[in-house]
């Protein structure tokens, strides 16, 4: 059933915005959720958090009325947040529960609304020229960055679905968005580099990624190891860091911040199987080990690290960003101290399921298929799963 097909409940039900729900979860307030999507959709992707209690009862079980047995499956909260995919089914279910005396609200626009949250937080420990902000998409864990100085700005790992957001943010700051960088051919989100390039921003992709079959390489600028780009007084240096993919490339911003893409996260290291599959994963893991030991860990301890994704296992820094000094990661992430054999064994033993729709997303990012912003948004629904482990690799 489409959202518009559900009758308006006789009992009025208040809505909660996705932004308000996120604030409650971030503040550690107890949140009780009734997810009314199909069980398969729920298992693949749902809202999580330390203070979240969530149950899944598909909406169609409420279509023939509510009996005592069904009510026993519905959690009790003050209130219960009822959600679905787009908001129509949840309003209907919440109404039926309100008629039974339950305290309920429904999530405005459902999980699509949750996936629309895209916030920017300043990286306060950044010590280079200009200002650096981290974009956060809690529904998928996708992270991106904007650095701006004087009258110029650049974004790193933008999403196609939020193309207008970057342009609007730059306009609000009174700066011109001059560059859009990709760290690699992403498997979990549709890149916004080409869309921004079409808007007059110079799109930049790693030179080492071109050999994977990028069809549009001649239309954009490429970044080779050691290349530099200027944004106001900020120098962005290209650092080739293969392992997660053969073309994985990091960007050292203002000699103070390393945008590592999917090579190194604050809670884990990269998974190595999304380009060549299981057969190629051991070789990629060995390449990742070499990259981390000989390239990344050679940087100063006070360089701030920020990946292109985060997970529920990650702890935010004091400023609310998912960043950490390299020295802290060196001390706290045990795999960074392993020898090669132990490292490879560790990253291969606990890999999560591959990202949803990753084959279509890779093909899109290679230019082998086309998509618009609406389809890009849909393809990205669900967790990113680009880390090598399902839990944190850092010690307390």
Automatic annotation (TrEMBL):
Pfam families: Lactamase_B, Rhodanese. Residues 27-123 form the Rhodanese domain. Residues 1-13 have a biased composition (Acidic residues). GO terms for molecular function: metal ion binding; sulfur dioxygenase activity. Residues 1-21 are annotated as: Disordered. This is MBL fold metallo-hydrolase. GO terms for biological process: glutathione metabolic process; hydrogen sulfide metabolic process. InterPro entries: Metallo-B-lactamas, Mito_Persulfide_Diox, POD-like_MBL-fold, Rhodanese-like_dom, Rhodanese-like_dom_sf, RibonucZ/Hydroxyglut_hydro. It comes from Halapricum hydrolyticum.
